[in-house]
Design goal:
Blueprint lengths: L7 H35 L2 H38 L3 E17 L2 E11 L5 E9 L12 E7 L2 E7 L5
């Protein structure tokens, strides 16, 4: 029985985590916004400047460090679950140990062997999610890959021919 790599539950969990992180960033911003309003009424220029700078730093750094990675991963999940996917069955070569950051998502390079229109072999590159584990696949094993662009949406080890 084959279990897909991604499910709607994964997407829902990422969205819930993103919502929690917005709350964690938003609550201190709301406190400093209230202090900003008070500083405008009592005319303390240094407090107005300090509150504005703190809100800006919280929003920019908070988004870049905590929200953007989840947004990019959620987009990747949505593309893999609902986007236009293609399928191919090719022999596995290797999975890179190095992690690449592609469109804000961490991936391992997955190399498979393919042939061009003239029948010449070449290595074809896909990106496999660094957060997921690849099934136990050895070099030369035939795998069925479902992919969106270069990102692997699903991979399945095919039984060996007798």
């Amino acid at each position: 029985m084959h279990t897909p790599i991604y499910s709607e539950a994964d997407y829902t969990a990422i969205q819930a985590q993103k919502h929690k992180r917005w709350l964690i960033i938003g609550i201190p911003c709301a406190v400093f916004a209230a202090a900003l309003i008070v500083s405008l009424f009592i005319r303390l220029q240094w407090l107005t400047i300090a509150c504005t700078l703190i809100i800006g730093v919280l929003l920019i750094a908070g988004y870049d460090l905590f929200i953007k990675p989840l947004r990019c991963y959620a987009l990747h999940l949505k593309n893999c679950l609902d986007g236009r996917t293609h399928e191919c069955t090719l022999p596995f070569i290797r999975l890179s140990e190095n992690i690449d950051l592609v469109e804000g998502v961490r991936f391992h390079q997955l190399l498979v062997s393919d042939t061009d229109a003239k029948g010449r072999p070449y290595e074809r590159l896909f990106y496999f999610d660094a957060e997921k584990t690849l099934p136990d696949i050895q070099e030369g094993d035939l795998i069925h890959i479902v992919h969106h662009d270069l990102a692997v949406a699903d991979v399945q080890l095919l039984p060996k021919a007798e």
